[in-house]
Amino acid sequence: VPQAGRIEVIKGPGSALYGSDSIGGIINAITRPSPREAEFEINPEIGSDGWRRLLATTGAPLGANSGFRLDLNLTDNTGFRDASDYSRYATTARLDGFLGDHTTHKTILSYTQVDQSGVSGLEAADYFARSTKNFYHGDVGRREVDALRLSTEFVYEPNAISQLRLTPFVRDNQMKLMPSWMLSYDPNDRDYQFQSYGLMAQYRHKLPERQLEWIAGIDIDHSPSTYQEIRLATTQVSGIYTDTTATGRINYDFSADQLSVSPYVHGQWQASDRLSLSSGLRYDYFYVDYQDRLAASVAQRQAGFGGFTHLRPASQDLSWDHASPKLGVVYALSAAHSAYANYHHSFRVPSTGELFRAGSSTNTTELQPVKTDSVEIGMRGQGFGWINYDLAVYHMDIKDDIVSYIDTVSNDRKVTNAGKTRHQGIEIALGGELSAQWSVQTAWSVSRQKYIEYTALFGFPTTQINYAGKAVGKAPKTLGNLSVQFKPTALQGLRLEAEWEHLGRYHTDETNTQQYDGHDLLNLRANYALSPKLELYGRIINVTDRRHSTYTSNQVGDPDLEYRPGLSRSYFLGLKAKF
Question: What is the dihedral of CA 501, 136, 563, 191, to 10 degrees?
């Protein structure tokens, strides 16, 4: 993200072009292209709590028809919590060029390595007394990631109205994870691995005389994956987890080879000077070949203190298919203002973890996709000659969400597609230049999110509770951001910014018995261009040193809140140099 050429943020469910399983939105980071002439940029940065980051990029033409860019990201910090080290190594290489007069190619190779220590939540006494405290030491609760991506995009444009795009890709992911939320009742160490081999193919065609453009394509993805989970024993000293030891028991060991085939069509029609219409339809087929690799003799239950329930579905094949329509309309009210409306239907297939890491549930392989219907109506444009605005009202229903229940006949814990939630809200974004020196940007959202149908389990012994009519837990009612920038004409090259972040109150569990009151933070930033190729910058995060929690929750029936402390007052200083 810090080295992206640009970042696309798309609200709500995705279009037919992007896929159907993005329910809340899409964030797309796009790499910078190869430069037209040789360049080198370096950006060292230091900060509080041992923060060190080096960003570097270089690139140059390779003859008349090609060029390359190489990005490097080295990040390391000790963290403001005890024993909360984090390091990241990432590199991205991009090669751009031409193949003949009508074909371009873009190859991107990226590799990322992340090593992150576990960080615990805190109950109120520790949170207010010393928010830097951490109950996980010695890499307990850690996450280690190795991710490789390779793709080559070929674009063939024989004329001004036609385009063929082919993008074969390969991915290789490995992640070792010790779930911190399970240390107290089912400590385990997980090893996820998957590879992907796929192709994105797309054809665009314009009909200028009819003001029409249509796009047809297909996405194909084959991803063999494996999952292994080992049961652990934990060591605690004065309530702090200091070490873990493998017990020799393997809870799960399975493979899940996944195939998805998704053809789609999308059309855009400029019906008149004022009216623009768009529609799309995507059909997704998913297939999973699941194989349990543990012997039948490996126990799935063990009663008593320190016991476990790790049910394993029998080896089997599963498949789903679904069609997702999308509709949109934009009407130009004037040269400066337009109104728009969108309808999106999306869905998400159950993950391999939900399907095959059954825990104590007996019928996880019967799960079906979660579905959403979303409607958005809005206006955007420029008012009073200087202010840009975007105002939207949305309504989204999520149906067939995955919930747990107890079968009253067999007394087994089961899962089913029975949940339904409703999400409604207003979002507004404003921004513009007040004068040659002052500019302002703000975004605000007010939402109402509630359970329509939702029965889940809590407590021990386990009982059921219906959340229907309650507000969705951990969903802030308001979110806001306001930034003011000042560029003094008396000192060219200086830019100052003050930013206010607002997080509104929210209920901390599904029964709505307790809540977090939210918080407001102030951040300051300054950039000074010493020359066209040298820039000095700094920032202060949480200027007032406000104690705040980035995530606050409690187990249903438990009056004790758990807080995830946010960053205390922190300072950062960096330098950007171009050669």
Answer: 80
Mean of pLDDT values over 458-467: 73
- Average pLDDT value for residue range 413-432: 92
Which two tokens mark 159? 């004329």
Q: Which of 577, 576, 549 is nearest to 563 (CA)?
A: 549
- Give the whole-angstrom CA distance, residue 317 versus residue 365: 10
- Using one digit for the tens of pLDDT, what is the confidence trace for 2-15? 899 999 988 888 77
Residue-wise DSSP of 95-136: EEEEETTTEEEEEEEEEEEEEE-----EEHHHHHH-TT--SB
The continuous run of DSSP H or E covering 151 comes out as strand 143-159
CA gap 215, 337 in Å, rounded? 28
Burial 507-540 (b: 16+ CB within 10 A, else e): bbbbebebbbebbebebebebeeeeeeebebbbe
Bridging pattern class, strands 122-123 and 143-159: unpaired
Among left, alpha and beta (phi > 0; psi -120 to 50; other), residue 259 is: beta
Cα radius of gyration rounded to whole Å, the chain: 26
Which residues are 229's β-sheet partners? 190, 252
Taking the mean position of all CA atoms in its chain, how far away is CA 503?
Answer: 19
Give the span between the Cα atoms of 268 and 287, in whole angstroms: 31
- Alpha-carbon span 493 to 488, nearest angstrom: 8
